[in-house]
Task: inverse folding
């Protein structure tokens, strides 16, 4: 597994799928679905073409090994390896329109600091 690029973006949760368009999803990736925001400002590692992993998933070295194994062997890992459209109700996916390229470590640290501040404000109020 190789990290192609690092982005900040929004992870969404699928709430409804139009079954008629789902059958053509592999071809044109235009699935009529409804979704809600699951997580904003997620740091996303692009591990393959249009496949992303939320940086927060990596808590242990075993987590990293699991993702590497799945990516290298083309194995799906629901809720961890995220595509760019919902394929079933409840699945998580990356909102491709929200992606912003993080080109250096300083930008990643800025996002981390901002997220930590936001989270601490939520718990203290």
Result:
């Amino acid at each position: 597994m190789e990290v192609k690029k690092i982005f900040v973006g929004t992870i969404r949760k699928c709430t409804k799928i139009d079954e008629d368009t789902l059958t053509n999803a592999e071809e044109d990736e235009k699935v009529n679905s409804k979704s809600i925001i699951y997580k904003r400002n997620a740091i996303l590692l692009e591990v393959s073409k249009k496949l992303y992993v939320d940086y927060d998933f990596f808590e242990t070295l075993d987590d990293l090994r699991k993702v590497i194994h799945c990516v290298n062997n083309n194995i799906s890992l629901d809720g961890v390896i995220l595509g760019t459209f919902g394929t079933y109700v409840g699945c998580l996916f990356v909102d491709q329109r929200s992606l912003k390229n993080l080109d250096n470590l300083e930008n990643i640290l800025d996002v981390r600091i901002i997220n930590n501040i936001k989270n601490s404000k939520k718990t203290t109020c």
The CA atoms of residues 40 and 105 lie 19 Å apart. The chain has one domain: 5-109. The longest strand covers residues 33-48.
